[in-house]
Amino acid sequence: MAARSRKHQRHRDPSAAHPRTAPSQPQPASPRLASPQPVTQRQPVTQPQPAAPQPVAPPQPGSPGAPPASRSEARNAAVRATLMPLAAGERPWPLKVATLIALFIGVGDLGVVIVEGSFRVGDAHTAPGGVLLFSVLMLVCAWGMWQLRYWAVLAFQAILAFVILFFSLLLMRANNLLALLAAVAVVGGGGYLFYKLVRVLSRLQMPKPPS
Asked: What is the pTM of this model?
């Protein structure tokens, strides 16, 4: 009876045959080493550069945005359009006249100084040294103008302008008819020759045509 009761008790209490096991505790997770992040260098912030100003070409004459040309500019442009460079060996008549005048004055003054030893203008005597220097200058201008040198024509024009100014002052002080006619001839003829030589200078400055 005791054996049956023990067997019956074993069937009723199965936990007695199989002891309970303690629930397993969760294992703590192993800490992972954080991988180092790549260090990026910060690029310097560049300020935007201002755009360089573009050069503005001046409006050409005759374009819609150009101011209207004055009468003098239009006349000068028309005169420049008619100019032609000097051909080889070409010598306009104003250049020939200026060369002859410079040659005549240079040789004449030099001859007077050599013969008489002095040069007289009216009642006054001029020093021979100054007359010789002026004679040499006129001879050099005559040679340069015949060789179509720009500097020679320009130098002769400067001397001619001084002569015109000097005789203009004499014109106001002329006390006889001969002095008056001489001053008028020099001022009028010299002024006309000066005007014609300006055109010759412009033609000398122009580029030579290809040969």
From this structure: 0.60
